[in-house]
Amino acid sequence: MSLIRLAFRYCFWSNSGVPLTTLLSIGGMAIGVASLVVAMAVMSGFETTLQKTVIDVSGHLLVLKRGTEDQAKALEEVKPFINGFEAATPFIFLEAVLAKKGVVSGVGVEGVHPEKIHQVLRLQKRLVKGELDFSEREGEPPGIVIGKGIQKRFDVKVGEVLRLVIPVVSSRDYSKFKPRLRKFKVRGVVSFGHHEFDSRYILMNIKAAQNFASVGDRVSGYKIRVKDDAEALAAGLAILEKFGTEYFVKDWKDGNRNLFEAVDLERMIVFFVLLIIVIVACFNISGALFISVVRRYKDISILKAMGARDAFIMRIFTLQGLTLGFLGSFLGILLGLLICYGLIVYQQQYSLISSEVYQLDKIELSYRFFDFVLIFAASLGICFVATLVPAIRGAGLNPVEGLRYD
Question: Which of 94, 152, 142 is closest to 114 using CA atoms?
Fold first, then answer.
C-alpha cells in the first residue's frame, strides 16, 4: 500500500499543486489515444457500412447458371450446398436508356419479385420518398422505384411518368436492334447507400420487366440470403467446387473485394502511423519522470537510508509512469468517443465524404472491443518501456549525495 501511495503522491503532489509536467503528459497521451480511437472507428465503420450496404441491396449471394436461358432449376441445384439458407428471389436485369428534357443516361433496370424481394433485400429501411410498391395498378403505367441519384439528376418527383428505352433484337435479323419505349410511373425513391446503385439503378416488377423485354418467364438468376454473412462466402466456394464454371457465383464481398482488402491494409497502416503520436506522448511521460527523479532526489536518499532497495525505488517510478499512462489512455478513449459522436452529428448535417470517390454517402462508425483492447494494451506497453530508463536512473542514485546538503 505504501508503494501505491508514494507513486500517487509523486504524480499529483508538489509544493505548487499538481505538477505541470503531469498535466502535459496526461494530455499528450489522451490526444494520441483519441486519434487512434477515431481512426479505428472510422476504418471499421467504413468496412461495416460497405458490407451492410452491399448485403441490403444485393443479398448475400448472386447465382446464375451459365450457357442457359432457363434458370428455373438453378436454385434447386445449388440450395443443398448453401448452409443457413433463408430465402431467395429471382431477378432479371436489363440495360436501358433514360431520357428527360435533353438529359440522357444509361441505367440498369432490375425486375424483382414483389413479395420475395422483401425476404432477401432490406430496401424498406432505405426508402426516401414514396412507397416500395411494385404492384400493377389498373389504368396506370407499371410502377418503378428509382435511386436517389437518378431522382436528383433528372429532378424526378414521386408520381411522375418516365420513359425508358431498351434495345430489342430484330426478329428478322439477329444482328440488328430496334428500340422499344415504355412509360413507367415513379412510385418511390430509395437511397441504396452506394453511389453506383443510386445513380444507375431502377427497380420494377419482374413481370413488367419480362414483358418490356419480351423474354417470357425467363430470369437472369437468383439473389439469396443466408443467416450469417460468413456462411455466404463458404457457400459460394462450395458451389464452385461442386459445379465449377457451370455456375456464376458472386458473394457480397466479390464486387468490392479491392475495397475490403484496402480497408484491412489501411487499418494496420493508420494504426501504426498514429501510434507514433502515442510514442511521442510516452517520451513526455519519460521526461516527466526524469524531472520527478531530480525533484525527489532527497526523498530517494531518505528511503535508501531507511533500507529501501533499488527494486523498490524502481517500482515507485515505474508505477508513477504507468499511472500517467493509464489516466491518459482512459481519458483518450473518452475523448475519442466524444469526437466520434461529433462526427456522427456533423455527418447528419453535412456531407462528410464524397460518394463518387468512396462509393458510400455516409459512414456508420463502428466500435470494436478488440480495437479498444489493442489501443489500451499498446499504449500501456509503450508507456512501460518509456518509464524504465528514468526508473533505473532513480534507483541508481547515491543516497549520500542526496543527504549531503540537507
Answer: 142
